[in-house]
Amino acid sequence: MCPEARRRAVRLALKPDDAAESDRQQHPHDDDGKGRRGELRREFLRQRRGEIHDPFPLGQGERPTRAEVPGAGMSEWLLSLEGTAAGKDAALALALLAAFLHALFGALQKGRHDPWLSRAAIDASYGLIAMPFALFVVPWPEPHMWPIFAGAFVIHAGYKLAQAATYSRGAYAVVYPVVRGTGPLFAVIGAGLVFGEHFTPGQWAGVFVLVAGILGLAVYNLRTVTVDRDTMVPALMLAVLTGAFVALYTTYDAYGIRSTADPFTFLAWFFFIDGVFMPVYTFRRWRQVPSSELVPLLKRGVIGAFVAYFSFGAIMLATRLDKVGEAAVLRETSTVFAALIAWAVLGEKVGPRRLALMSLIAAGAVIVEFAG
Questions:
Q1: What is the domain extent for residue 55?
Q2: Relative orientation angle of helices 291-321 and 85-109, to the nearest 10 degrees
């Protein structure tokens, strides 16, 4: 069953019988002749009642009902928004929230600490915090989700290695816009291939306006920056590679969150599994960290974990509610937020040229949203 058919089948579980029958008549080919849709609906209803996917029974064999599970009402409300005007508005707000938080997340990783260790501290923190939610709160993942989680683990591992290598070699003001500028173009193409999404000519114009503004900001910063200039060429090449990974994980994770009945199951288990790689990979580096730096680094990790929850969670929910390509493009307004953070927090100047380029980025995002 394709992801879109699976999403409709899940929505059937939230509808009364007459509405469900109407939906079945509109999409008669969703059932593959073997009762897959009915099976999925029954499985989802049993999951809501707490009859399955709970390997940790409470007390004397008693299982919690879906009404007793924290966040169950939120999951059902989000599912009810899919494909609606309210869902599109919610996706817009979530994508912009993800943009701001992603800029903040990048600044946290690029701070005074080693970017590798900063990322490891963040990953370890969000993995440990997500563990009890994955094991005891959200519904257990369906069997077909385990290969999807394995693929996400590999893709995100590659992304983190490329990102840390980029930040280690290049000035944040230069490499961050390049990463974010190449990502949306690749993501829109990927969404078209995987999900069959199509942009209008006006939306494509908006994409190119946004990408031109982002890359223009990178060129401007490259001309004026004075740090890390000796490693700038390899840093820029790594930034393009990181942008490709951004598009890859955005498209793949959108497929993942659409493949499960409860979106919070995907998010909780993703963070739990994804938090393993970087702490293990950077184990030897931790032995060289001065004891005076451990506490500040761990504090940064906890703060970054909560930023990551809301940033990644927001963009994933946006891709579940609306088009993947539009959400990916809107998230790249993070370059505007990154420049504002650099101005407000780091004391960097924002002259008329940078302001014009930032306005171009924002204009591209507006065109994409309203030309659809």
A1: 3-74
A2: 160
Q: Are residues 32 and 158 in the same domain?
A: no
Task: Indicate whether 82 belongs to any domain.
Answer: no
340 C-beta neighbours (distance < 10 Å), count: 15
Classify residue 16: in a domain, yes or no.
Answer: yes
In terms of domains, do 70 and 96 share one? Answer: no
Residue pLDDT, tens place only, 327-356: 888 887 887 787 777 777 766 676 778 778
Domain count, the chain: 2
With H, G, I as helix, E, B as strand and everything else as coil, classify residue 58.
strand
DSSP one-letter string for 146-167: HHHHHHHHHHHHHHHHHHHHHH
In a domain, 69, yes or no: yes
Last residue of a domain, one of 34, 49, 74: 74
User: pLDDT for 278-314, tens place per residue?
Assistant: 999 998 888 888 888 888 888 888 988 998 899 888 9
In this structure, the answer to whether residues 158 and 266 fall within a common structural domain is: yes
Residue 83 belongs to a domain: no
Tokens of 108: 């946290």
Residue where a domain terminates, one of 28, 45, 74: 74
How far does CA 237 lie from the centroid of its chain? 23
Residues 20 and 143 in one domain: no
CB atoms within 10 A of CB 349: 8
**Mean pLDDT over residues 169-184, rounded?**
77
Could you give the CA distance from residue 309 to residue 94 in angstroms, rounded to a whole number? 12
Question: Has this prediction a pTM greater than 0.70?
Answer: yes
How far is CA 290 from its chain centroid? Answer: 33
Residue 33: burial class (beta carbons within 10 Å; 0-12, 13-18, 19+): exposed
Q: For residues 14 and 73, what is the distance between their CA atoms, to the nearest angstrom?
A: 11
Question: 78-86 — which CB contacts under 8 Å span 24+ positions?
Answer: 78/263, 78/317, 78/320, 78/321, 79/10, 79/11, 79/14, 79/263, 80/11, 80/14, 81/321, 82/7, 82/11, 82/320, 82/321
